[in-house]
Amino acid sequence: MVPKVALVTGGASGMGKIFAQRMAGHGTRVAILDTNDQELQRVASQSDNLYSYHCDVSNLDEVSQVVGKVTEELGTVDRLVHCAAIMPTAKLDDQDIAQIQKLMTINYGGMVNISKIILADMKQRQSGEIVIFGSLGGSVLVPECGAYCASKAAVNAYTEILIEENRGSGVHIMLVCPTLVNTPLLQQAVETSNPKNIRDSIKKNRLADPDSIIDSVERGLKKKTEILLPNTEAKILSWLRRLAPRLLWRLIHHTNKE
After folding, report:
1. I need a labelling partner for 133 at 20 to 30 A (CA). Which of 42, 105, 110, 234 fits?
2. How confident is the model at residue 258 (pLDDT cuts 50, 70, 90)?
3. Does residue 257 carry a pLDDT above 90?
4. Alpha helices, H only, the chain
5. Angstrom distances, CA of residue 4 to CA of 7, 192, 240
6. How far from 186 is each of 36, 189, 222, CA to CA, in Å?
7. Sheet holding 171-176, edge to edge
8. Window from 1-5, 170-174, 188-192 with minimum mean pLDDT
9. Run of H or E residues at 134
10. Distance (Å, rounded) from C-alpha 52 to C-alpha 231?
11. Residues in CB range of 52: below 8 A, 6 or more apart
12. Phi and psi (nearest 5°) for 53?
């Protein structure tokens, strides 16, 4: 199904931008939300089907106002794609408490804000799609990414419970848990503590391709998939986490050793 109206958070860059552009190319009117006004305008200028809205997803009042504006200007939202996130890294002992709390406020709190508002309307109509980008980092944990992993663990858990609590509602909710994806989000990690596993993944080109991830998401939407591990590495690491957690930790420590 091609949605008439979609809303994408984090739509000025990375996965959000690419997904928004793809949907716009298929004829969907897409509201892209972000705090980077310059990039928002640049992306929106590339298609008549892209509409930019400044929005801090961690601010509930702002989210509510923007969703109302989108609905008034474009129509009822048929698909929500939540991508907005930040990724500063550090060892937990070294990371500022304010930064740790900011990670949780944006990555987890922002997801709660936007999904709660959009889902309420979709449930009234008994239709709609919600795609939440969690992360495999919410279960396969990595040193120097502790606060980020914790925020994504919260996203993963919340979304999985949301799926279970809304069966039969007519709304398809999907949690997407990729490994590291080749997007500008990684630059935040590089510019902070620059963990070795991320450096090596970039250097050796072991990053997931964003277009391939979105291909997998689109297939998942057609199949009504609920929890999507969109690439082979994600499936293998998830399996190791469940069945051989100590082996996985040894592998993680080995790859993170300077």
Report:
1. 42
2. confident
3. no
4. 14-25, 37-44, 60-74, 97-103, 110-125, 146-165, 185-191, 196-203, 210-223, 232-243, 245-255
5. 10, 40, 40
6. 17, 5, 29
7. 50-54, 29-34, 5-9, 79-82, 128-133, 171-176, 227-228
8. 1-5
9. none
10. 30
11. 11, 12, 32, 34, 37, 40, 41, 43, 44
12. -140, 120
Provide mean pLDDT across the span 96-109: 99
The DSSP bridge partners found for residue 228 are: 176
* 231, pLDDT greater than 80: yes
CA angle 84, 88, 91 (to 5 degrees): 140
- Return the domain boundaries, the chain: 5-255
Give the span between the Cα atoms of 243 and 164, in whole angstroms: 24
Q: Which residue type is seen at 88?
A: P
Predicted pLDDT at 222? 98
pLDDT at 152: 99
229: pLDDT confidence band, cut at 50, 70 and 90? very high
pTM of the model as a whole: 0.97
Task: Kindly report the CATH class assigned to 5-255.
Answer: alpha beta
Is 90 exceeded by the pLDDT of residue 18? yes
Sign of CA dihedral 237, 239, 241, 246: negative
Count of residues making up the chain:
258
